[in-house]
Fold this protein.
Amino acid sequence: MAKVTKQQYAGIVKMYNSLIGSHQLWELWQDSMTMFALSISNTVDSRFREKREAAYIGIVHKYTKDEMQVFPQIFGEIAMQLEADREQDFLGDLYMSLDLGSHWHGQFFTPYNVCAAMAQMQFPDKITLEEIKPVTVCDCACGGGALLIAAGNEFLRKTINSGANGQDYICLFAQDLSQVSAMMCYVQLSLLGFAAKIKIGDSLLHPMLDSDNGEDIWYTPVWFSPIWEVRRLVNRLDKIMMAELRGAANRVWQPETAERRACPSGCGS
């Protein structure tokens, strides 16, 4: 049986314990995080809906009807805990408390209070309506998303008196090699109402790119909100215009020197 000391974990641990016997705790955690992420994604993201729905059903078939009734209760408890206190990495802390982290792979999640201190240093004391502008924050080894949650919360706190909705001005990007960690991050950022893009994969070998849009990419529901759709459209248009301007400048400035004619590639310049 899993045991933790923090009171806010008691209810959720009790529900996981009710399923231990025919299933291992690690399996339960992995399956629950994956199902929660799939459920959220399929309400807003149509790119791989059928394939993700099939993955969801594949997990469901591992459990009895009575066992499956426990998972919505777990999800509800997670949502309630994050609603009651945004200032926490609930899933990351619970994950480590249950000793599910892999010390063999150096998997140790940064404590939330450390992430909060780091976030405080990144923003001014307050941000006025005239000063507010879109901000992006990236964590290439996100774990459960503690650093991004702290950054998002700090930005909301600094903009609370600006008259603007801070969640319309901060976009989060996350990546992790561990699928379970990425799903934990996705679930928490979704429930907290942040626009975010999460990638599953090695950030050293395959870092996230703007063009990434494959099955390893997960978007939170707020990512699809009208204001962020418009911002991405404007950003794409800006990039196209800048590329055109650079191309035009290169076409205008083409000095025909003897050296350039001798070396068309410009290798002598």
User: Anything to note?
Assistant: The chain has a mean pLDDT of 89. The CA atoms of residues 80 and 150 lie 18 Å apart.
